[in-house]
């Protein structure tokens, strides 16, 4: 028949739209209107099978048929129309057909049966697929291949597929394994895993291909490539095959089905002819045959497994059904992997967020905050998967990575502050919302804003560039372009250009896992409002005095020590004792002050010392010991024992260095050991109260946390703060304030020992206590004992009035730690409870 003749690939395709009656419209089909194409009612099928539409009444009449029945069945379609299906397949086989359910909602529900039909005097096996379409039973027949009955490899394929899935570590690795396995099963030249984003644009995330083929991995495609109606069909029709891309479509006659008076609905048809637009696209890619498997979860299409072959290829039903099953399994498995990846990513992000939060909440000095932010630049950017970030803190604007200019950032921050809700705002299309951003959309098409103070003077902004600037086109998109008289036709390049237009001025979207950590970052905001404002007044003086106390201790230790001491700030010696002058052979009357410390370090030992200094800078609680060679002013090489400690001197981060000659057996060696032990004790105790300091508490909390996590025991945290301490200082003076803190510390120390708890001075007039394994009753008793113990001291608030004594407010948190929790969140929880205790009238205990 004429319909079976070879299609000339240079012949123009019919690119017009059809209406519901199957009549052609004048509107041409192209990228701009392909979402209107009625692809479910093409009135055509592929020629490798035949389609029959049969009534479901007692006669089971064939009322529609594809025109190629004469080729495959030996009977013209006109002859079959109006005859009973029984005349074609026999009564017993018809009865077997009718016993199958035709109420399929998707291809997984389709019923299959092998029918024997006499063709030109010989019984021929046909693979039959049946379903219902608007009242008619659709019977699709394909000649059964010799491979249909051979299933020896099926179990091995399934076993291998499941085994490989188990061995993969993440979603992308699992996708790659699936692509490779499907390629092995089906034998196509190329198999791709294709995922949709929130706007239905697609991306190839995994690919298995024959050597020499141009890679498509990483390719991006616009939503128009797979329009809405096609995606809806993929939800119902899980597996679609084009045996020969260059096929000549076979019409169904008559065009209109008798029950509806409209073209036959082929939504679930296996043989349904494909959109001419899609055929042209495939031909322009040099593709000869395809199979597409839908990836669906919770009734949502999120991706496709797309198979391409460069010549015609027929895949037997047995293998197609197997792929259908594996596609369903893979859809569920990959979705779970995606959820797991998202969960693990969020855990990693929370760790990074904790580091950033700790920079702000762990430092009272803005100088130290700014310094540590510079050290954590990569953490700050990775936290939001951003290419740039801006942090404004204490009127200083710092830029990291690729960002707009300082003036542009300050102007943008004002606009973002007006848009912010609950101190945050994010967009992936900044230049479409904010006109000025068009000037820097290559750097900041996406922004995420977080205010750090209620007035929004302090803030953080993360930037992402325009997405087209960061996409790598795998291979040359200029390939596979067909030039026609009417210009460039549909091709991979034109599709890619369409995608570029779609995503212009757009960044990659801010994912849920990034937005989920904003509440954790808002603890910085809470710290500013609940803690730092209070610290700015009540604790600044105390902290300064504590630093001075510490400096006095260090200076006293240095002066009285029989070993050499140096104080080093910004790599320069700012103080040294007489033993240091003698050791370095400094002439009488001269000083080491202002000289680089490394000047007196032997060249061979400098790299190690720089590493020590780096460790101290990153972690001020670090206490480093070692040994190496130094050289004095006379050029004499000295073998020395070395101890380095991170301290604050003159309000700046500094390093205290202790040096002693290598032999430790003499009295000087014992003195060196004694001094370093005392120095280490100074680093972990508070100079005013002799309680453990904040660094010691953090080390204790980390250890206790791990033990409670392992034993699944509750952990108690009490944040304790002297009420209205600022006003107490104003009345009694700083020395009086010191005596008050010491008295409260003595009570806390006594009570903590009685209960087996650990207590430390946290900062200023604030203390913190922790206890593992406490019950709720024991936690309340301990908190009440602390509150009452301080009250019973009866320290008068005003020396001239009898009423009013010093009290404390206490915020408590009792909880069994989870692996997803962080110690900083625990502290923030107890401090939030403390804030509520103070808001409730002070001298209160509040538990969260």
From TrEMBL:
<dbReference type="Pfam" id="PF08446">
    <property type="entry name" value="PAS_2"/>
</dbReference>
<dbReference type="InterPro" id="IPR003018">
    <property type="entry name" value="GAF"/>
</dbReference>
<dbReference type="InterPro" id="IPR001294">
    <property type="entry name" value="Phytochrome"/>
</dbReference>
<protein>
    <submittedName>
        <fullName>Diguanylate cyclase</fullName>
    </submittedName>
</protein>
<dbReference type="Pfam" id="PF00360">
    <property type="entry name" value="PHY"/>
</dbReference>
<dbReference type="InterPro" id="IPR052155">
    <property type="entry name" value="Biofilm_reg_signaling"/>
</dbReference>
<keyword id="KW-0157">Chromophore</keyword>
<dbReference type="InterPro" id="IPR000160">
    <property type="entry name" value="GGDEF_dom"/>
</dbReference>
<dbReference type="InterPro" id="IPR043150">
    <property type="entry name" value="Phytochrome_PHY_sf"/>
</dbReference>
<dbReference type="InterPro" id="IPR035965">
    <property type="entry name" value="PAS-like_dom_sf"/>
</dbReference>
<dbReference type="InterPro" id="IPR013654">
    <property type="entry name" value="PAS_2"/>
</dbReference>
<dbReference type="Pfam" id="PF00990">
    <property type="entry name" value="GGDEF"/>
</dbReference>
<feature type="domain" description="Phytochrome chromophore attachment site">
    <location>
        <begin position="176"/>
        <end position="328"/>
    </location>
</feature>
<dbReference type="InterPro" id="IPR029787">
    <property type="entry name" value="Nucleotide_cyclase"/>
</dbReference>
<feature type="domain" description="GGDEF">
    <location>
        <begin position="713"/>
        <end position="848"/>
    </location>
</feature>
<dbReference type="Pfam" id="PF01590">
    <property type="entry name" value="GAF"/>
</dbReference>
<dbReference type="InterPro" id="IPR016132">
    <property type="entry name" value="Phyto_chromo_attachment"/>
</dbReference>
<keyword id="KW-0675">Receptor</keyword>
<keyword id="KW-0716">Sensory transduction</keyword>
<dbReference type="InterPro" id="IPR029016">
    <property type="entry name" value="GAF-like_dom_sf"/>
</dbReference>
<keyword id="KW-0600">Photoreceptor protein</keyword>
<dbReference type="InterPro" id="IPR000014">
    <property type="entry name" value="PAS"/>
</dbReference>
<dbReference type="InterPro" id="IPR043128">
    <property type="entry name" value="Rev_trsase/Diguanyl_cyclase"/>
</dbReference>
<dbReference type="InterPro" id="IPR013515">
    <property type="entry name" value="Phytochrome_cen-reg"/>
</dbReference>
